[in-house]
Amino acid sequence: MTLNAAITGVGMSDIGRKTNRPAMIHLAEAARRALECAGLTRADIDGISTYPGKADNSPGMSPLGTGEVRNALGLKTRWHSAVPDGPSQMAPIQVAAMAVATGQARHILCFRALTESSSQTATQRASIPGAGRARLGGWYSYLVPAKAMSASNWAGWMAQRYFHEFGMTREHLGLVATGQRAFAQQNPSAVMRTPLTMDDYLGARMISSPLGLFDCDVPIDGACVVIVSAADAAKDCAQAPLTIAAMGAALGSQETWDQRPDLTTMGAHDSAADMWARTDLKPADVDVLGLYDGFSIFVPFWLEAMGFCGHGEAKDFIADGNIGPGGRFPVNTGGGQLSGGRLHGFGLLHEVCTQLWGQAGGRQIDGAKVGACGMGGGFIAGSMLLRRD
Amino acid sequence: MRPLPELTPENTAFWTGGAEGKLMIAFCADCSHAIHPPQLICPKCWSQAIEFKPVTGTGAVYTFTVNHQPWMPDMPVPFALAVVDLDGAPGARVTAEVVNADPESVVIGQTMKIGFLNIDDIWFPQWEPAQ
Ligand SMILES: [Zn+2]
Question: What residue ranges do the domains of chain B occupy?
Fold first, then answer.
Protein backbone atom coordinates (compact mmCIF):
# COMPACT_ATOMS: atom_id res chain seq x y z
CA MET A 1 0.00 0.00 0.00
CA THR A 2 1.22 3.47 -0.87
CA LEU A 3 -0.18 6.87 -0.07
CA ASN A 4 -1.23 9.05 -3.00
CA ALA A 5 1.29 11.63 -1.85
CA ALA A 6 4.89 12.44 -2.66
CA ILE A 7 7.65 14.85 -1.79
CA THR A 8 8.50 16.92 -4.84
CA GLY A 9 10.87 19.60 -3.58
CA VAL A 10 13.02 20.60 -0.64
CA GLY A 11 14.86 23.79 0.20
CA MET A 12 17.00 24.98 3.06
CA SER A 13 18.09 28.51 3.86
CA ASP A 14 21.69 29.36 4.60
CA ILE A 15 21.74 28.33 8.24
CA GLY A 16 24.07 29.58 10.92
CA ARG A 17 24.59 30.68 14.47
CA LYS A 18 23.75 34.21 15.61
CA THR A 19 22.82 35.23 12.08
CA ASN A 20 20.56 38.01 13.37
CA ARG A 21 18.48 37.50 10.23
CA PRO A 22 14.73 37.53 10.81
CA ALA A 23 13.02 34.15 10.58
CA MET A 24 10.94 35.30 7.60
CA ILE A 25 14.08 36.01 5.57
CA HIS A 26 15.34 32.48 6.22
CA LEU A 27 11.92 31.09 5.36
CA ALA A 28 11.65 33.00 2.09
CA GLU A 29 15.07 31.74 1.01
CA ALA A 30 14.16 28.13 1.84
CA ALA A 31 10.82 28.46 0.02
CA ARG A 32 12.46 29.86 -3.12
CA ARG A 33 14.95 26.98 -3.19
CA ALA A 34 12.21 24.37 -2.61
CA LEU A 35 10.10 25.77 -5.47
CA GLU A 36 13.14 25.75 -7.78
CA CYS A 37 13.85 22.15 -6.75
CA ALA A 38 10.27 21.10 -7.54
CA GLY A 39 9.98 23.16 -10.73
CA LEU A 40 6.95 24.94 -9.30
CA THR A 41 6.04 28.58 -8.82
CA ARG A 42 4.37 30.10 -5.79
CA ALA A 43 1.13 30.19 -7.75
CA ASP A 44 1.14 26.37 -7.64
CA ILE A 45 1.17 26.29 -3.83
CA ASP A 46 -2.35 25.90 -2.47
CA GLY A 47 -1.64 24.61 1.02
CA ILE A 48 0.63 25.46 3.93
CA SER A 49 1.60 23.31 6.89
CA THR A 50 3.93 23.75 9.86
CA TYR A 51 4.92 22.50 13.31
CA PRO A 52 4.13 23.64 15.93
CA GLY A 53 2.73 26.97 14.70
CA LYS A 54 3.65 30.29 16.22
CA ALA A 55 4.79 29.54 19.77
CA ASP A 56 6.55 31.38 22.55
CA ASN A 57 7.25 28.37 24.76
CA SER A 58 10.97 28.82 24.32
CA PRO A 59 13.02 31.56 22.66
CA GLY A 60 13.19 31.38 18.87
CA MET A 61 11.59 27.92 18.89
CA SER A 62 8.81 28.74 16.46
CA PRO A 63 8.62 32.39 15.49
CA LEU A 64 6.39 32.01 12.40
CA GLY A 65 2.77 30.94 11.99
CA THR A 66 0.96 29.88 8.82
CA GLY A 67 -0.94 33.15 8.42
CA GLU A 68 2.02 35.50 8.38
CA VAL A 69 3.97 33.23 6.02
CA ARG A 70 0.97 33.13 3.70
CA ASN A 71 0.80 36.91 3.83
CA ALA A 72 4.53 37.50 3.45
CA LEU A 73 4.94 35.18 0.46
CA GLY A 74 1.68 36.22 -1.18
CA LEU A 75 0.40 32.66 -1.29
CA LYS A 76 -3.18 31.88 -2.35
CA THR A 77 -3.69 28.86 -0.15
CA ARG A 78 -7.03 27.13 0.38
CA TRP A 79 -5.85 24.72 3.09
CA HIS A 80 -3.60 25.29 6.09
CA SER A 81 -2.56 23.54 9.27
CA ALA A 82 -0.24 24.09 12.24
CA VAL A 83 0.15 21.09 14.50
CA PRO A 84 1.74 21.40 17.94
CA ASP A 85 0.46 17.96 19.02
CA GLY A 86 0.88 15.12 16.56
CA PRO A 87 3.49 12.84 15.10
CA SER A 88 6.33 15.01 16.34
CA GLN A 89 8.20 17.45 14.16
CA MET A 90 7.07 15.27 11.24
CA ALA A 91 3.45 16.24 11.87
CA PRO A 92 3.21 18.92 9.15
CA ILE A 93 4.51 16.48 6.52
CA GLN A 94 2.15 13.69 7.55
CA VAL A 95 -0.86 15.98 7.80
CA ALA A 96 -0.01 17.45 4.38
CA ALA A 97 0.28 13.95 2.89
CA MET A 98 -3.21 13.14 4.13
CA ALA A 99 -4.51 16.47 2.83
CA VAL A 100 -3.23 15.97 -0.72
CA ALA A 101 -4.31 12.32 -0.72
CA THR A 102 -7.87 13.42 0.07
CA GLY A 103 -7.96 16.28 -2.42
CA GLN A 104 -7.76 19.19 0.01
CA ALA A 105 -4.77 20.66 -1.85
CA ARG A 106 -2.36 19.87 -4.70
CA HIS A 107 1.01 21.22 -3.56
CA ILE A 108 1.57 22.01 0.13
CA LEU A 109 4.43 24.10 1.44
CA CYS A 110 5.54 22.51 4.74
CA PHE A 111 7.94 24.64 6.74
CA ARG A 112 10.04 24.85 9.88
CA ALA A 113 11.79 28.10 10.78
CA LEU A 114 13.87 28.80 13.88
CA THR A 115 15.92 31.58 15.40
CA GLU A 116 17.04 29.69 18.50
CA SER A 117 20.63 30.84 18.15
CA SER A 118 19.94 34.57 17.85
CA SER A 119 17.25 34.39 20.52
CA GLN A 120 19.59 32.89 23.08
CA THR A 121 20.85 35.47 25.57
CA ALA A 122 22.45 35.44 29.01
CA THR A 123 19.07 35.05 30.67
CA GLN A 124 17.19 33.26 27.91
CA ARG A 125 18.50 29.92 26.77
CA ALA A 126 17.00 28.12 23.80
CA SER A 127 14.83 25.09 24.48
CA ILE A 128 13.91 25.65 28.10
CA PRO A 129 10.18 25.15 28.04
CA GLY A 130 8.27 27.87 29.78
CA ALA A 131 11.34 29.99 30.39
CA GLY A 132 10.39 33.39 31.73
CA ARG A 133 6.86 32.46 32.77
CA ALA A 134 5.67 33.06 36.30
CA ARG A 135 4.01 29.65 36.76
CA LEU A 136 4.18 26.46 34.71
CA GLY A 137 1.35 24.06 33.87
CA GLY A 138 1.11 20.73 32.07
CA TRP A 139 3.77 18.04 32.00
CA TYR A 140 6.60 20.57 32.03
CA SER A 141 5.57 21.53 35.55
CA TYR A 142 6.75 18.21 37.01
CA LEU A 143 10.18 18.49 35.41
CA VAL A 144 11.24 22.11 34.92
CA PRO A 145 10.62 23.30 38.53
CA ALA A 146 12.59 20.26 39.73
CA LYS A 147 15.54 21.79 37.79
CA ALA A 148 15.15 19.17 35.03
CA MET A 149 14.95 22.15 32.69
CA SER A 150 16.39 20.85 29.49
CA ALA A 151 15.69 17.98 27.14
CA SER A 152 19.33 17.08 27.72
CA ASN A 153 18.37 16.14 31.29
CA TRP A 154 15.45 14.05 30.08
CA ALA A 155 17.53 12.35 27.39
CA GLY A 156 20.27 11.85 29.98
CA TRP A 157 17.87 9.72 32.03
CA MET A 158 17.17 7.51 29.03
CA ALA A 159 20.86 7.19 28.18
CA GLN A 160 21.79 6.35 31.78
CA ARG A 161 19.17 3.59 31.99
CA TYR A 162 20.19 2.23 28.58
CA PHE A 163 23.88 2.21 29.57
CA HIS A 164 22.91 0.36 32.78
CA GLU A 165 20.84 -2.31 31.05
CA PHE A 166 22.84 -2.93 27.90
CA GLY A 167 26.43 -1.96 28.61
CA MET A 168 26.60 0.92 26.17
CA THR A 169 29.46 3.35 26.80
CA ARG A 170 30.24 6.93 25.84
CA GLU A 171 32.54 5.57 23.15
CA HIS A 172 29.51 4.14 21.33
CA LEU A 173 27.79 7.52 21.36
CA GLY A 174 31.12 9.01 20.30
CA LEU A 175 30.92 6.92 17.14
CA VAL A 176 27.56 8.50 16.38
CA ALA A 177 28.91 12.02 16.88
CA THR A 178 32.21 11.54 15.04
CA GLY A 179 30.54 9.59 12.21
CA GLN A 180 28.02 12.35 11.60
CA ARG A 181 30.79 14.96 11.76
CA ALA A 182 32.66 13.03 9.07
CA PHE A 183 29.53 13.24 6.90
CA ALA A 184 29.17 16.96 7.73
CA GLN A 185 32.67 17.61 6.40
CA GLN A 186 31.26 16.62 3.00
CA ASN A 187 28.24 18.92 3.37
CA PRO A 188 28.86 22.61 2.61
CA SER A 189 25.70 23.67 4.44
CA ALA A 190 26.50 21.99 7.78
CA VAL A 191 27.35 24.39 10.60
CA MET A 192 30.00 22.20 12.29
CA ARG A 193 32.55 21.04 9.72
CA THR A 194 35.88 20.87 11.56
CA PRO A 195 37.17 17.33 12.20
CA LEU A 196 35.91 15.73 15.42
CA THR A 197 38.02 12.94 16.92
CA MET A 198 37.03 10.48 19.63
CA ASP A 199 39.48 12.27 21.93
CA ASP A 200 37.72 15.58 21.22
CA TYR A 201 34.40 13.92 21.95
CA LEU A 202 35.48 12.26 25.20
CA GLY A 203 37.33 15.37 26.37
CA ALA A 204 34.43 17.75 25.91
CA ARG A 205 32.59 19.09 28.93
CA MET A 206 29.73 17.13 30.40
CA ILE A 207 26.24 18.60 29.97
CA SER A 208 23.97 16.05 31.65
CA SER A 209 25.60 12.69 32.30
CA PRO A 210 26.23 10.56 30.38
CA LEU A 211 25.68 13.17 27.66
CA GLY A 212 28.43 15.66 26.90
CA LEU A 213 28.69 18.68 24.64
CA PHE A 214 28.97 16.71 21.38
CA ASP A 215 25.98 14.53 22.28
CA CYS A 216 23.73 17.58 21.97
CA ASP A 217 22.49 19.13 18.76
CA VAL A 218 23.32 22.71 17.87
CA PRO A 219 20.80 25.57 18.09
CA ILE A 220 20.80 27.55 14.85
CA ASP A 221 18.93 30.16 12.88
CA GLY A 222 17.44 28.90 9.66
CA ALA A 223 14.50 27.45 7.81
CA CYS A 224 13.63 24.42 5.74
CA VAL A 225 10.76 23.85 3.34
CA VAL A 226 9.44 20.51 2.08
CA ILE A 227 6.80 20.45 -0.66
CA VAL A 228 4.26 17.63 -0.43
CA SER A 229 2.23 17.03 -3.59
CA ALA A 230 -0.69 14.88 -4.66
CA ALA A 231 0.55 11.81 -6.56
CA ASP A 232 -0.91 12.88 -9.91
CA ALA A 233 0.34 16.46 -9.53
CA ALA A 234 3.80 15.20 -8.57
CA LYS A 235 4.30 13.69 -12.02
CA ASP A 236 4.64 17.17 -13.52
CA CYS A 237 7.41 18.30 -11.18
CA ALA A 238 11.09 18.72 -12.01
CA GLN A 239 12.29 15.92 -9.73
CA ALA A 240 11.24 12.29 -9.71
CA PRO A 241 8.47 12.11 -7.09
CA LEU A 242 9.51 10.58 -3.79
CA THR A 243 6.45 8.53 -2.99
CA ILE A 244 5.43 8.26 0.64
CA ALA A 245 5.29 4.48 0.99
CA ALA A 246 4.17 4.38 4.62
CA MET A 247 3.90 6.52 7.73
CA GLY A 248 3.59 5.85 11.43
CA ALA A 249 2.64 8.10 14.30
CA ALA A 250 2.49 7.33 17.98
CA LEU A 251 1.88 8.69 21.41
CA GLY A 252 2.41 5.30 22.98
CA SER A 253 2.88 6.33 26.59
CA GLN A 254 2.08 9.15 28.97
CA GLU A 255 2.78 12.62 27.62
CA THR A 256 5.92 13.28 29.63
CA TRP A 257 9.53 12.16 29.60
CA ASP A 258 9.90 10.30 32.90
CA GLN A 259 6.87 7.97 33.14
CA ARG A 260 7.20 5.61 30.14
CA PRO A 261 7.48 2.17 31.77
CA ASP A 262 10.62 1.27 29.79
CA LEU A 263 12.85 4.31 29.24
CA THR A 264 15.17 2.27 27.02
CA THR A 265 12.47 2.70 24.39
CA MET A 266 10.69 5.78 23.06
CA GLY A 267 7.50 6.65 21.21
CA ALA A 268 9.71 5.88 18.20
CA HIS A 269 9.17 2.18 18.82
CA ASP A 270 5.38 2.46 18.56
CA SER A 271 5.57 4.77 15.56
CA ALA A 272 8.00 2.63 13.56
CA ALA A 273 6.07 -0.58 14.27
CA ASP A 274 2.95 1.01 12.80
CA MET A 275 4.90 2.20 9.75
CA TRP A 276 6.29 -1.26 8.94
CA ALA A 277 2.85 -2.82 9.40
CA ARG A 278 1.61 -0.67 6.50
CA THR A 279 4.16 -1.63 3.82
CA ASP A 280 5.79 -4.59 2.13
CA LEU A 281 9.17 -2.88 2.39
CA LYS A 282 11.61 -4.26 4.96
CA PRO A 283 14.52 -2.66 6.85
CA ALA A 284 16.92 -4.44 4.47
CA ASP A 285 15.40 -2.43 1.58
CA VAL A 286 16.45 0.91 3.11
CA ASP A 287 19.43 2.73 1.57
CA VAL A 288 19.60 5.94 3.61
CA LEU A 289 18.29 6.97 7.03
CA GLY A 290 17.44 10.25 8.66
CA LEU A 291 17.02 9.57 12.37
CA TYR A 292 16.24 12.25 14.90
CA ASP A 293 19.38 13.20 16.78
CA GLY A 294 18.45 15.99 19.11
CA PHE A 295 20.80 13.93 21.28
CA SER A 296 23.17 11.21 20.10
CA ILE A 297 21.37 8.61 22.26
CA PHE A 298 18.25 8.95 20.13
CA VAL A 299 20.07 7.42 17.14
CA PRO A 300 20.53 3.94 18.71
CA PHE A 301 16.98 4.15 20.05
CA TRP A 302 15.64 4.90 16.56
CA LEU A 303 17.81 2.16 14.99
CA GLU A 304 16.22 -0.37 17.34
CA ALA A 305 12.74 1.12 16.94
CA MET A 306 13.03 0.87 13.14
CA GLY A 307 14.16 -2.75 13.38
CA PHE A 308 17.67 -2.33 11.98
CA CYS A 309 18.85 -4.28 15.03
CA GLY A 310 17.24 -5.81 18.10
CA HIS A 311 16.57 -4.13 21.42
CA GLY A 312 19.86 -3.67 23.23
CA GLU A 313 21.93 -4.46 20.13
CA ALA A 314 22.49 -0.94 18.82
CA LYS A 315 25.87 -0.53 20.50
CA ASP A 316 27.30 -3.46 18.54
CA PHE A 317 25.49 -2.36 15.37
CA ILE A 318 27.15 1.04 15.69
CA ALA A 319 30.56 -0.36 16.67
CA ASP A 320 30.44 -2.58 13.57
CA GLY A 321 30.49 0.53 11.40
CA ASN A 322 26.98 0.22 9.97
CA ILE A 323 25.86 3.83 10.29
CA GLY A 324 28.86 6.02 9.46
CA PRO A 325 30.50 6.83 6.13
CA GLY A 326 30.85 3.63 4.11
CA GLY A 327 28.38 1.73 6.30
CA ARG A 328 25.52 -0.46 5.10
CA PHE A 329 22.86 1.74 6.76
CA PRO A 330 24.24 5.28 6.65
CA VAL A 331 22.49 7.60 9.12
CA ASN A 332 22.22 11.39 8.92
CA THR A 333 24.52 11.71 5.94
CA GLY A 334 24.32 15.50 5.97
CA GLY A 335 25.78 15.62 9.46
CA GLY A 336 22.46 15.44 11.27
CA GLN A 337 21.51 17.95 13.88
CA LEU A 338 24.65 17.19 15.91
CA SER A 339 26.84 18.71 13.20
CA GLY A 340 24.40 20.21 10.72
CA GLY A 341 22.28 22.20 13.16
CA ARG A 342 18.91 21.77 14.82
CA LEU A 343 16.17 22.16 12.21
CA HIS A 344 13.90 19.94 14.29
CA GLY A 345 13.92 17.00 11.91
CA PHE A 346 13.31 18.94 8.70
CA GLY A 347 17.03 18.96 7.94
CA LEU A 348 17.15 15.17 8.26
CA LEU A 349 14.26 14.75 5.83
CA HIS A 350 15.85 17.30 3.48
CA GLU A 351 18.99 15.17 3.41
CA VAL A 352 17.13 11.88 2.79
CA CYS A 353 15.36 13.49 -0.18
CA THR A 354 18.61 14.95 -1.51
CA GLN A 355 20.17 11.48 -1.35
CA LEU A 356 17.21 9.84 -3.12
CA TRP A 357 17.51 12.41 -5.90
CA GLY A 358 21.24 11.64 -6.21
CA GLN A 359 22.26 15.22 -5.42
CA ALA A 360 24.34 14.75 -2.28
CA GLY A 361 27.73 15.44 -3.84
CA GLY A 362 30.74 13.86 -2.14
CA ARG A 363 28.57 12.16 0.48
CA GLN A 364 26.16 10.59 -2.04
CA ILE A 365 25.09 7.00 -1.30
CA ASP A 366 25.28 5.19 -4.63
CA GLY A 367 21.92 4.17 -6.02
CA ALA A 368 19.84 5.23 -3.03
CA LYS A 369 16.20 4.34 -3.79
CA VAL A 370 14.51 3.92 -0.41
CA GLY A 371 14.85 6.26 2.53
CA ALA A 372 13.57 6.03 6.10
CA CYS A 373 13.06 9.01 8.33
CA GLY A 374 12.18 9.08 12.02
CA MET A 375 11.58 12.28 13.94
CA GLY A 376 11.08 12.92 17.60
CA GLY A 377 12.45 11.90 20.96
CA GLY A 378 10.86 10.79 24.19
CA PHE A 379 7.11 10.35 23.89
CA ILE A 380 6.63 11.98 20.49
CA ALA A 381 7.46 10.26 17.20
CA GLY A 382 6.70 10.20 13.52
CA SER A 383 8.09 7.74 10.96
CA MET A 384 8.11 7.76 7.17
CA LEU A 385 9.34 5.62 4.30
CA LEU A 386 10.11 7.32 0.99
CA ARG A 387 10.63 5.49 -2.29
CA ARG A 388 12.00 6.85 -5.52
CA ASP A 389 10.05 5.02 -8.20
CA MET B 1 14.93 32.00 39.68
CA ARG B 2 13.35 28.54 39.91
CA PRO B 3 10.06 28.45 37.94
CA LEU B 4 7.11 27.35 40.08
CA PRO B 5 4.19 25.12 39.08
CA GLU B 6 0.70 26.58 39.02
CA LEU B 7 -1.60 25.05 41.62
CA THR B 8 -4.70 23.30 40.26
CA PRO B 9 -7.40 21.07 41.76
CA GLU B 10 -5.56 17.99 40.54
CA ASN B 11 -2.08 18.87 41.73
CA THR B 12 -2.43 20.93 44.93
CA ALA B 13 -2.18 17.93 47.26
CA PHE B 14 1.02 16.79 45.55
CA TRP B 15 2.71 20.19 45.69
CA THR B 16 1.63 21.11 49.24
CA GLY B 17 1.70 17.78 51.10
CA GLY B 18 5.28 18.51 52.04
CA ALA B 19 4.02 21.12 54.51
CA GLU B 20 3.16 18.15 56.71
CA GLY B 21 6.14 16.12 55.56
CA LYS B 22 3.94 13.89 53.38
CA LEU B 23 4.42 12.77 49.78
CA MET B 24 0.82 12.77 48.55
CA ILE B 25 0.04 10.61 45.51
CA ALA B 26 -3.27 10.38 43.64
CA PHE B 27 -4.99 6.98 43.66
CA CYS B 28 -8.25 5.77 42.14
CA ALA B 29 -10.62 4.86 44.96
CA ASP B 30 -12.36 2.33 42.72
CA CYS B 31 -9.47 0.42 41.10
CA SER B 32 -6.49 1.48 43.27
CA HIS B 33 -4.49 2.67 40.24
CA ALA B 34 -1.71 5.11 41.16
CA ILE B 35 -1.93 8.23 38.98
CA HIS B 36 1.10 10.42 38.42
CA PRO B 37 1.20 13.17 37.35
CA PRO B 38 -2.08 13.48 39.24
CA GLN B 39 -5.33 14.02 37.36
CA LEU B 40 -9.06 14.27 38.04
CA ILE B 41 -10.08 11.09 36.23
CA CYS B 42 -8.65 7.58 36.56
CA PRO B 43 -7.13 6.73 33.16
CA LYS B 44 -7.77 3.04 33.77
CA CYS B 45 -11.48 2.99 34.72
CA TRP B 46 -12.63 6.64 34.22
CA SER B 47 -13.69 6.87 37.83
CA GLN B 48 -13.77 10.39 39.24
CA ALA B 49 -13.28 9.06 42.77
CA ILE B 50 -9.68 10.24 43.06
CA GLU B 51 -8.12 10.38 46.51
CA PHE B 52 -4.70 11.58 47.58
CA LYS B 53 -2.92 9.32 50.03
CA PRO B 54 0.46 9.68 51.68
CA VAL B 55 2.96 7.08 50.52
CA THR B 56 6.04 5.99 52.47
CA GLY B 57 8.21 8.50 50.64
CA THR B 58 10.78 5.89 49.72
CA GLY B 59 11.64 4.29 46.42
CA ALA B 60 14.36 2.96 44.14
CA VAL B 61 16.31 4.98 41.59
CA TYR B 62 15.07 3.94 38.12
CA THR B 63 17.50 6.30 36.42
CA PHE B 64 19.31 9.58 37.02
CA THR B 65 21.50 12.21 35.42
CA VAL B 66 24.11 14.59 36.80
CA ASN B 67 23.45 18.02 35.36
CA HIS B 68 26.55 20.16 34.76
CA GLN B 69 25.04 22.97 32.69
CA PRO B 70 23.80 26.14 34.42
CA TRP B 71 20.51 26.58 32.54
CA MET B 72 19.75 29.81 34.36
CA PRO B 73 22.03 32.51 35.73
CA ASP B 74 23.55 31.67 39.14
CA MET B 75 22.41 28.04 39.02
CA PRO B 76 24.86 26.03 41.14
CA VAL B 77 26.13 22.90 39.39
CA PRO B 78 26.60 19.96 39.37
CA PHE B 79 23.52 18.36 40.81
CA ALA B 80 21.84 14.98 40.33
CA LEU B 81 18.26 14.51 39.11
CA ALA B 82 16.76 11.16 40.04
CA VAL B 83 13.72 9.39 38.59
CA VAL B 84 12.49 7.19 41.43
CA ASP B 85 10.00 4.30 41.32
CA LEU B 86 7.78 4.91 44.35
CA ASP B 87 7.22 2.30 47.02
CA GLY B 88 3.50 1.73 47.46
CA ALA B 89 2.49 3.37 44.16
CA PRO B 90 3.16 0.84 41.38
CA GLY B 91 3.90 2.42 38.01
CA ALA B 92 4.32 5.92 39.41
CA ARG B 93 7.62 7.76 39.49
CA VAL B 94 8.62 11.03 41.07
CA THR B 95 11.42 13.03 39.52
CA ALA B 96 13.34 15.37 41.77
CA GLU B 97 16.72 16.81 42.61
CA VAL B 98 19.03 14.72 44.80
CA VAL B 99 20.26 16.51 47.96
CA ASN B 100 22.54 15.62 50.86
CA ALA B 101 24.68 13.39 48.66
CA ASP B 102 27.61 13.65 46.26
CA PRO B 103 25.89 13.89 42.84
CA GLU B 104 28.42 11.45 41.42
CA SER B 105 27.57 8.84 44.07
CA VAL B 106 24.01 8.17 42.83
CA VAL B 107 23.48 4.70 41.32
CA ILE B 108 20.53 2.96 39.71
CA GLY B 109 18.62 0.79 42.17
CA GLN B 110 19.63 2.58 45.36
CA THR B 111 16.95 3.39 47.91
CA MET B 112 15.98 7.04 48.36
CA LYS B 113 13.76 8.89 50.79
CA ILE B 114 11.80 12.06 50.27
CA GLY B 115 12.37 15.51 51.73
CA PHE B 116 10.87 18.87 50.80
CA LEU B 117 12.05 22.33 49.82
CA ASN B 118 9.53 25.10 50.49
CA ILE B 119 9.38 28.10 48.13
CA ASP B 120 6.30 30.33 48.41
CA ASP B 121 3.28 28.01 48.40
CA ILE B 122 5.09 25.01 46.89
CA TRP B 123 6.84 22.14 48.71
CA PHE B 124 9.19 20.59 46.16
CA PRO B 125 10.02 16.91 46.61
CA GLN B 126 13.73 16.24 46.93
CA TRP B 127 15.43 12.85 47.10
CA GLU B 128 18.24 11.86 49.42
CA PRO B 129 19.86 8.48 50.05
CA ALA B 130 17.90 6.43 52.60
CA GLN B 131 21.22 5.12 54.04
ZN1 LIG C 1 -9.64 3.51 38.37
Answer: 12-129
